Amino acid sequence: MGGEYRITGDKYPRMRRPDGRRRIVLAVIASAAVVGLIGWGTLQLIDVFTGGHKASAAGAATGDCDRRTAASSARVPDSAAQPKPLPRPGQITVNVFNATPRGGLAKSTADELKKRGFAIGKVGNATKEFDKKVKGTGILLGARAAADTALPVLGTQLAGAERKSDGRKGDEVDLVIGTRFKNLAKKEDADKALAALAKPKSTSTPSGKKNC
């Protein structure tokens, strides 16, 4: 360019960004940071008041419960999970002894048990250990192995009879008739008790809930 507007020298004017635009940019950044902090704080308050931490604790407790249940199930032996099968009356040999002053009780009782399917062994008077010393309806005697097999089955036939174990080795069990004995349980009642005894007991909790 020449004439009136000619520029001379080796320095040229430089363009600078106005200070007002810089302040606007900084203000926008600061506002965004404040809004983010407020939003984060609001979420934390909502979590506290709505029990979010309780849900987390409950979830942890449930996980612990599941682990304990699985561990307990793993420790239960098969023999505990599956109880011994009960013998049928025909598999039980019963010795019937009369410990009362009344005559004929041992034979009549043995005959009735035979009608109900039990095998009958010895029939007679009780030994001195029990003679006139059994105050209840009767005593059921057997080996320790019979405590949860033969004796409960025989017990369905005589309500209130006491069960005892001794050191015998055989499978036979004794029914010692006591002074309060009148009759064996009615057959229909004995059959119901025997059916209830044979029914397996459920170990599951109602509605599938776990007890922890």
Helix share bin = 40-55%
Distance between the termini: 95 Å
What is the strand content?
A: 5-15%
Instruction: Output the structural class.
Output: alpha/beta
Radius of gyration, CA atoms, in whole angstroms: 45 Å
Keywords:
212 residues, alpha/beta, 6 helices
Give an account of the 3D structure:
With 212 residues, the chain is of the alpha/beta class. It is 42% helix and 14% strand. The chain has helices spanning 19-49, 52-75, 78-81, 105-115, 150-155, 187-198; strands spanning 93-98, 119-125, 138-143, 162-166, 173-177. It has a five-stranded mixed beta sheet. α4 links the parallel β1 (93-98) and β2. The chain is rod-shaped, with a radius of gyration of 45 Å.
Quick recap of the structure?
This protein is of the alpha/beta class and 212 residues long. It is 42% helix and 14% strand.
